[in-house]
Amino acid sequence: MEEIWGRGTRQRRALNMVWTAAGEYGFLPDFLAFHRDGSPDLYLNSVVGFAHRFYDQQLLHAYVCRLDESLLRELFSDILWLGIEHAVYDRELPQRPVMADLRREHARRFLLDQEDLPMQQLMMRSELIHTLKAGRCREVLTGRPGIRNPWDKALYEALKYPGRLTTEEIIGHTEDVLRRFFVFRFADLRHRRVWHISLGSRLNAWLRRILPAEQRRGAGMRRLQAALPAEHGGALPAETFRGWDGSAGAQRALAEVRQTFGNPLFSETKRLQIERELCVGAHRRAQLYFARGGKNEAGSHAANRAFFAANRTRYRLAIRQLRRRVQSSLSVCRQPVELRGKTGCFRPGLVWQALKQNDSRVFTLRRECSRASFDVMLLLDASESRVGQQALIASQAYAIASALCLCHIPVQVVSFCSTHGVTVFCQLKALEEESCEGIFDYSAQGWNRDGLALAGAERMLRQEGRSSLMLVLTDARPGDDLGLSADGLRPGRRYMGESAVQDAAAAARTLRRHGVKLVGLINSVLPEAVTGPAVREIYGKDSARIEEIGRLSRTVGTWIVRQIGQDAG
User: Which SUPFAM superfamilies does the UniProt record give (predicted)?
Assistant: First the structure.
């Protein structure tokens, strides 16, 4: 358990694998590889490291950025890396015979991981890339790729890059493969014109809706499905367009989410009302679902609970420290409250309780008490990127919530993720609940559409005049497979990178205008130099890193004490 503290996570282990193979430490690779169970893939991470050692990274990065402007960006990037993998293996095997064993183990795990995949992952994966990867793994284990389709087989053979290739030759070879096997055509009544695979970003975004993509099979041309999976950068098929318009695809996605996450927190009428208000503009194809409780996975709850138990002493200390600091601030900033009693100021509105409930306390007295006049929401990023830190995040949230409850500060704990185009909120602890045990139901999966999540979380706050403090436990790396829809003259974009950060920052500004105090509590394996720009854009100066348990009570206590002082002032 100790290795999870600080940055000793699975992601950190994967980084160390890359750095060891590269013979260089401190750089951040574009890719990290993991098995289906979340454990780092030693072979593929070693390939990433060797590629960093052998090839010009500036040239490769520039070429990947160029591919990123194409219609099938994800597909082309995978093809590039399949070629690099073969070249690295061919080049390194004579010096490191152990690479053969690592490659066989990788192939065995890959084929094993493909068994009994959930429907969501089957729908999201690229069948072409899966065919190529599975073929390579079968050839490693049996000597035969087992690919029968002639076009697929020809592409598979073309990706066996020899180890002698330089960086420029790898790029040139990849260009030849893409020109040979992938062509984009624009047809009208008089002639056909061929477009290069790389287009300007704005032109590309518009053409992606109308331009048919084709593959070359042998000497002829065969048209692909007009709508490609979103992960390939193509347009989504009409039946998967999501939104509150009642389409069949939207209803199927919502039904699956209900089955996975359980009973709704809100009535369907209220859910639809919130969805109609928030899922507009660039989010118009998204949906919302509010669940009562977590995903109800016994395994996740047990693992989270076991991690907390193994580190009970340190967390109990953090709870006591945070409680003492908050109570000390509350005792100084005492708030006037009305207490019911049998003497004091008569309240006619309470007479019915005396008649119907035999409660004679129909008077009130104003006294100063050490009680906060604000609510706290802990908003937990529950995307797939948090799997390696799932137990740590659940334990941190439990410690924070427990300390606030002991100080009689109302606290609500909500996790969010995005799956099937639906942003899901799971209320792990309600404001009125005294027990924090439900927080251990926290489970990480799917994507994180932070902009929509911040807007939806605001609708879960109390709307009765009390101020609110929202603490977001996140790595500040928003991303979703459902892109941002075209909005007016602005073309659609992927919900990744800068576009996603800008969307989250806009939602954060809206929350602040509505009077919500928003604070980002950052927990990431990446250094501050990398996460800093996104954190500052979304949360401004209201953020802090909380990887270490020793900093948890001090950091969170600082923001709680500030909120107490602001409300008292």
Answer: vWA-like
